[in-house]
Write a structure and sequence with these properties.
The protein is α/β, with parallel strands linked by helices. It contains five helices and six strands, in the order E-H-E-H-E-E-H-E-H-E-H. The protein has a single domain, classed as Flavodoxin domain (Rossmann fold, 3-Layer(aba) Sandwich), CATH 3.40.50.360. Strand 3 and strand 4 form a beta hairpin. Homotetramer.
């Protein structure tokens, strides 16, 4: 049986067991992954020391390399972020910068290490900016070699102004639920295709 691995990077600014709305929405994706026999893990980035820089390893004290090993072994990468002033979090931005720093690494075929991996985005907040944040995340992943399936931006935003967050609501949002399903199933579908039919080498070897 084909086995897929999925990693979700939670860009919340909260630490440890502190409640994270982004993680709550990401867990709905995880539920589908588990049902479909996909190995999956959520990594809360704020619990690691991730050095600033554009390299795969910034040296002593940098804990990004242990996260990157899991990403390198994954077929699916989802980046989750809360919204702050209409933007993705600084933590999510840091992760994308570190991913960019590894984009010159190659897979066994000599392509970008991110080839044949699929990406997506999960966004939560009680302010506008979900589509803007998802656009930034998905473009960044595509630019460094990930493939983006259709409809892989699952998000929830509350009403304008201060108000309840995702975990405060006591009802299911049909739009958000549908996008969670599309994100999960479309990433699984495309990841399975790449397992059996990887992107050909012609025209995209990094050192050719």
């Amino acid at each position: 049986m084909m086995k897929l691995n999925a990693i979700i990077l939670n860009g919340s600014l909260k630490h440890g067991d502190e409640g994270s709305n982004t993680e709550a929405l990401a867990k709905e994706v995880i539920e589908i992954y588990q049902k479909e026999n996909v190995n999956s893990e959520i990594i809360r980035l704020s619990d690691y020391h991730i050095s600033y820089g554009i390299a795969d390893d910034m040296g002593e004290g940098d804990e990004w390399p242990e996260i990157f090993k899991k990403i390198a072994n994954a077929d699916i990468l989802i980046i989750g972020t809360p919204l702050w002033l209409g933007e993705k979090s600084s933590v999510a931005t840091l992760a994308i910068e570190r991913l960019y720093g590894s984009s010159s690494l190659t897979n066994e075929q000599g392509q970008s290490i991110f080839y044949n991996k699929v990406g997506g985005a999960v966004v939560t907040g009680n302010e506008d900016g979900a589509k803007h944040a998802a656009t930034s995340i998905l473009y960044s992943l595509s630019h460094i070699g990930f493939t983006i399936p259709p409809n892989v931006d699952a998000y929830w935003v509350g009403e304008a102004g201060p108000g309840p967050s995702y975990t405060d609501i006591d009802y299911e949002n049909d739009f958000t639920k549908k996008h969670v399903e599309m994100l999960a199933y479309n990433t699984i579908h495309l990841a399975k295709i790449f397992k059996e039919n990887p992107i050909p080498n012609k025209g995209n070897l990094l050192n050719d």
